[in-house]
Amino acid sequence: MCIKKATLNELDSLTELFDLYRMFYEQKSNLFEAKEFLKARLMNEESVVFIAYDENNPIGFVQLYPSFSSLSMQKSWVLNDLYVKKIARKKGVGEKLLKEAIHFAEETGSKGVLLETNVENIPAQSLYEKIGFKREANYFYYFSV
C-alpha cells in the first residue's frame, strides 16, 4: 500500500472514492458534481487530500481543510473526510491515512488536526483514540444553517 498527496492527476480515482464516501453517508451518487467539487478544492488549494492505493487501486482517502486559531495565531487542519473501501477495511488503511494527515500537519507547522464524528461511530472513535486524538471535553460546538 502506498499513500500519495492528490493532484489533478488523481482526480478520477479520488472522485470514485469521494462518491462512495458520500453514499456511505446516505447521499445520492453524483460523479459529475463530486468531480467538479474536488477539482475546485484542488485547483484553488482549498483542501489537501491523501489517497491510499493498493498497487494501482485506490482504496481510501483523507481530506483536510485549513483553519486558523486566532488565540494561538497558528494554522490548524480540519480532517473533514476519511473513507476506506469496504474491501480494504480492518487492514490498517484508515490508520495509515490518519498518520499521514498528522504528519502533514506537523510538516506544515500547524497547531494540529481537528475532527468530529458521530457519537454512534464507535469503531472510528476507537481508531482516533488509538492514534492519539483526545476527545474534547471543554467546548461545545454549535451549528447554524
From TrEMBL:
InterPro entries from the xrefs?
Acyl_CoA_acyltransferase, GNAT_dom, NAT_camello-type
Transferase is among the record's keywords: yes
Give the Gene3D superfamilies listed for this entry.
3.40.630.30
Positions of the N-acetyltransferase domain: 1-145
SUPFAM superfamilies named in the record:
Acyl-CoA N-acyltransferases (Nat)
**Pfam families cross-referenced by the UniProt entry:** Acetyltransf_1
GO MF terms listed in the record are: N-acetyltransferase activity
Which keywords does this Swiss-Prot/TrEMBL entry list?
Transferase
PANTHER family this protein is in? GNAT FAMILY N-ACETYLTRANSFERASE (PTHR13947), LD18367P (PTHR13947:SF37)
Protein name, UniProt field: Acetyltransferase
